[in-house]
Specification:
- By secondary structure, the chain is an alpha/beta fold.
- It has two domains: 179 residues, FAD/NAD(P)-binding domain, CATH 3.50.50.60; 121 residues, 3-Layer(bba) Sandwich (FAD/NAD(P)-binding domain), CATH 3.50.50.60.
- It has six helices and 19 strands.
- The strands form five sheets. Strands 1, 2, 5, 6, 7, 8 and 19 form a seven-stranded mixed β-sheet that branches. Strands 10-17-11-12-13 form a five-stranded parallel β-sheet. A three-stranded antiparallel β-sheet has the order 14-15-16, with no helix packed on it.
- Helix 1 packs parallel to helix 2 and helix 4 runs parallel beside helix 5.
- Bound molecules: NADP nicotinamide-adenine-dinucleotide phosphate.
């Protein structure tokens, strides 16, 4: 029998949708994919989620949301959805080994870290010195010099986090002005362990004889190229929305984000709703993702009631 509602994704958006759908007695099935818990599980302290005057650990926030959803009857399964048919009355989602069916679907599939696409990046990715997660890998570089690439809040946050372990953090940014918020830029500039390499575009990850990263070659505008010595390159240059599997059925914009109807969470397909970073290229905050998750569950509930 078809589920009432299937929620794809267990980040802030998916879990908030699960809490609301579960409290509405819809007994939602939540499918968690490649990154259970979403992006907050790769961050350290979350300082701007309302209700936590002294900040909250990202993993703790997510596991509390999940426990809250489970308390009201949300069920969780791990699977990677390979293809979907969302056009009919019964929505079909093909997992690795089974097909799921639902009357309504909430897509909260989030976004994945973007990579630089330069030589050496993939060769040294994962365990050999190139990574997108300081929280996961920072402790491996205790006492070493590391590089963070990017000029947004993520890069600043990663750089500050890495000062706990590294002897020196060089923040490499391709321009001389930041996308990050004032407060983060100020903290980065004031930190004695952080050095800025501005107007520097990364061009190659350089390896050493041990088969691991040894430096990052950058092109500094007007000054030519140089190699910044480092044992690790932390890439923090934004994210790509996880919408590829659905892009033949749902409207996406030029950057691949789901397009909902004007300022809503509803899509062109009846019974299909979107929430969080897969559908928001503007705000991309934990709290806005949670807000969209809430709205999508309420919309799904109303839509299901209308079908009866
Ligand atoms: P972002 O704001 O999009 O910044 C990405 C940065 O990477 C930009 O500085 C960009 O350079 C640089 N970049 C992109 N492609 C590049 C390439 N190929 N080579 C070199 N540099 C490249 O992404 P984000 O920092 O991940 O932040 C995303 C959202 O999450 C933002 O809304 C941010 O406020 C939010 N966030 C908030 C917090 C917090 O509040 N604590 C923490 C993390 C993230 P240009 O500037 O030249 O384009």
């Amino acid at each position: 029998m078809a589920e009432n509602v299937i929620i794809l994704g267990t980040g802030c958006a998916g879990l908030t949708a699960a809490i609301y759908a579960a409290r509405a007695n819809l007994s939602p099935l939540v499918i968690e994919g490649g990154q259970p818990g979403g992006q907050l599980t790769t961050t350290s302290e979350v300082e701007n989620f309302p209700g936590f005057a002294h900040g909250v650990d990202g993993n703790e926030l997510i596991s509390n949301m999940r426990a809250q959803a489970e308390r009201f009857g949300a069920r969780f399964e791990y699977d990677l959805i390979q293809s979907v048919d969302l056009k009919g009355t019964t929505k079909k989602l093909q997992g690795a080994e089974k097909t799921y069916e639902a009357k309504a679907v909430i897509l909260a599939t989030g976004a994945s870290p973007r990579l630089l696409g330069i030589p050496g990046e993939m060769k040294y990715y994962g365990g050999k010195g190139v990574t997108t997660c300081a929280t996961c890998d920072g402790a491996f570089y205790r006492g070493m010099e590391v590089v963070v690439v990017g000029g947004g809040d993520s890069a600043c946050e990663e750089a500050l986090f890495l000062t706990r372990f590294a002897s020196k953090v060089t923040l490499v940014h391709r321009r001389d002005s930041f996308r990050a918020s004032e407060i983060m830029v100020r903290r980065v500039k004031d930190h004695e362990k952080i050095e800025l390499a501005l107007n520097c575009a990364p061009v190659e990850v350089i390896g050493g004889e041990d088969g691991k990263v040894n430096g990052l070659k950058v092109e500094e505008s007007g000054k030519g190229s140089r190699v910044i010595p480092t044992k690790c390159v932390f890439i923090a240059i934004g994210h790509t929305p996880n919408t590829k599997v659905f892009a033949d059925q749902l409207k996406v914009d030029t950057n691949g984000y789901f397009v909902a109807h004007d300022n809503t969470v509803s899509t062109d397909l009846p019974g299909v709703f979107v929430a969080g970073d897969c559908a928001d290229h503007v705000y991309r905050q934990a709290i806005t993702a949670a807000g969209m998750g809430c709205r999508s569950a309420i919309e799904a509930e109303r839509w299901l009631a209308d079908q009866e």
